[in-house]
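Possible regression after last week's pipeline update?

I re-ran a chain I had predicted before the update to compare outputs. Posting the input and the new output here so someone can diff against the archived version. Not blocking, just want to make sure nothing changed silently.
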Amino acid sequence: MGGRMLEPEEAEDDDVVLSWEGRPAVAVRLPALTDSLDRILADLERRHGMPLAQLDRKTKQLLVRNLEARGAFALRHGVETVAAALGVSRFTVYNYLNRE
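New output (post-update):
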């Protein structure tokens, strides 16, 4: 996910502090959600071995469904980011989401 480990005393309000045997052991700073979407898309490209825009339509539809399940479209500009990665329009992404 791209989190970063910190010393517990460096933790800020949004960081997660993990304890071991009742004492703070490490703090984890999670990345911004938009950074996470970029990482997910880059990972998908690595897994498929090619740019997502080169995938066939059926595979793109499956990816959109999986990204929806992971909450990608709850992010601001999520549809636009995914559409750009897939080499399709926003309208096409919405069509993929509305398919049964």
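Follow-up from reviewer: compared with the archived run. The longest strand covers residues 23-29. Marking as no regression found.
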